[in-house]
Amino acid sequence: MAEQKSKEKQNYMRSIINFLQGIAFTLFIFAIILTIYLINLYHIRLAPFTNYAIVFDAGSSHTEMFVYNWPADKSDGLGTTSSVNEFFVCPLRALYLNETTKKGEPIKLKAISDYEENLDLLEDYFRPCLTEAIEKIPTNRHKLSPIFLGATAGMRLSRLRNITRAKQILETIREIFSNTPFQFVVARQVN
Question: I need a surface site. Which of 16, 42, 73, 190 has the fewest CB within 10 A?
Fold first, then answer.
């Protein structure tokens, strides 16, 4: 009888110890999960996303693509940031036609206004730099990265020569930009 009570007491103590070990193990796992969560949260706060913007500066003699970046935690789409950086620059390469000028030189298309008669070549003109932007800007930031075109004197002169052709150039560029993974919003045209 005493031996049976001793075994019952041992079983009772063993079940309490097992129960406490289960609680301790559960608390340990919970502590590990909480620690991992807090470390991830801490790193996310320390390393915020970076925003990007793509700007094509289309002058009368050439076009360049500038890609800028800044810490995303500074703006949230509402505020300002004091640290905008130039991420990289890509000058668009002139395209040469198989035709020649009166002087026998190949026709060089170096500015967007030069494409009045060659709208089908505009995509080839923009493609190398757009491809570089797609490769260098993180994929998860593509849809959040706006793309802009600033066209100056060359396009003003083109509008004076042939407003229909100038509009076709801009419409073709809008179509090219719309087919990229970037955020393209049709902007107003300033005369």
Answer: 190
